[in-house]
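User: Here's a chain of 138 residues. Predict its fold as tokens.
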Amino acid sequence: MTTWTSEELARITDAEELRLAPLRVDGRPDSRGRVWVVRDGDDLYVRSLSGRVSDWYRSTRVRPRGRVRVGRVARNVVFVDADPGLNDRIDAAYRAKYGHYATSHLRAITSPEAAATTLRLVPYPDCRRSGSRRHAGR
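Assistant: Prediction complete.
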């Protein structure tokens, strides 16, 4: 596993939305759309506004890897269940960043149903970029 660079954290934190694509069973990204993203320290978190019924969230339960993109920043990630003890801090981060949206949206993203879907985005190396791609049989 790797960490986010300070530039990646800044760009993603400043962005209104993050493009999220869990991996399909065949390993290709399955673009599910855009989600809100917040930062706590050097960690990034996403939640499903629709709770556990969201297609993208259910995909992360089957295959917990994917790709995220904000502008020119694109990273492979592992979707890790967030520590429930952080929910109050993550709620506060959502309110601070997205407080200009309708109250109904803020209530939904900070609801217990949405909080139960909080995932930490953990970057991992892209073997194709590093030149260390492994081939079967070698």
